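Suppose a classmate hands you a notebook page containing two proteins, each written out with its sequence and a corresponding row of structure tokens. How would you begin to make sense of it? This section walks through that situation. The first entry is reproduced here exactly as it would appear on such a page.
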Amino acid sequence: MTTERALDVDVEPLSPQELTKLATLAIEAKASAYCPYSNFRVGACVLLSTGTYHTGSNVEVASTPVGICAERCAIAPIVASMKRPAMPTLRAIAVSTDINPPASPCGMCRQFINEFATTKHLPIYMYGKDGLQGEVVKMTIGELLPMSFGPNDMDRNR
């Protein structure tokens, strides 16, 4: 049986320093992207409630569906490193691409983020090719994935 998540809980706002670090690490993570087929670099950074930052970048392979997006690359090792029943508490996510306007997480990443979000108000910051000097789009996981299906739905009507 899974524990009910309080999805309407607000998230503590990030300080300007936390947001700058989150964005900078996501932007820097693009340099690690392995994308020889699309040349579409993506970097991501996840801030946990513990104050730790975790980065990831997209990794493509010739068999395109086998690659992994930057967001999942950042989150999966966090989850895999924890002993159950412990789970990470995500505080914010930043995603960086080389296009304007900034790109949002793909559908698979939205569902993946939703799985580990403890609130639908989890902020996701999206940065484009101009990085910190350019347009920043901020949306919540609830806005990016409305009427989502998640862990709470698995225990319904059982």
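The notebook's second entry, a different protein, reads as follows.
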Amino acid sequence: MVQPEGFVDHKHPRKVCKLSRFIYGLKQASRSWNKRFDEKIKKFGFAQNLDESCVYQKASGSNVTFFILYVDDIIIMENHIPSLQGVKDYLRKCFSMKDLREASFILKIKIYRDKSKRLIRPGQNDFMDKILKRYQIDNSKRSNIPIQERLDLNKTQGASTTEEVKCMQNVPYASAVGSIMYAVRYTRPDVAFAQNITSRFQQNPSEPQWTAVKNILKYLRNTKDMFLVCGGNPKAELRVDCYCDVGFETDRDDIKTQTRYAFVLNGGAMD
């Protein structure tokens, strides 16, 4: 990096200007932005969530506002329109901001809303189509379940011969598992267990384990138009339910007990 021409101090020709801001692209820049945003938004009365540092909330009587920050993208949720406009006006005074109005597409997630029924449905159809094409599953057979019942997968099945190792080197096993995990984290908790099982063999996968990964993708292809539905009766209280199950020493490789759980908010599964 070179200092622009015209800024040389003839009394100190070997010195350079000190930047008062961070350079875009460096890790210090994102930290500086986050510190500045945190300072400004707290001055406006927002409090940072202790468990999720990118979530801020502000309550004034019956009016409640939530901020969700992802780098420099902000989602605002407010139950009082005039208060929402006041928050936007404050942000415009502090930062150069573009108002994209109602959220419809966030981090590869399409948001479908039915205001008359107070329902929200997050979906990742475009992302599903992309990964299905990437791993050549877009024209394959479909699967009705993410993982076969009583399927025995373990580390002893890993590629052992020279031919097997060479064959599996060309298989995008870890990449496919990572793509499935992205869907699991946002809209597809129904394949969480299958993804967890297959992720254990990334170091040395085998053909049976790769077949299991492809089966998950085939299931996603078959169900990509299905959605989680979040919402509820406005007259009913917000309700969170938890379901759990446990299997004793079901992890045969490490002789561990496996636990499964799911949280449901007003009928919609959540992380």
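A careful reader of the second entry would note: The chain has two domains: 27-101, 123-270.
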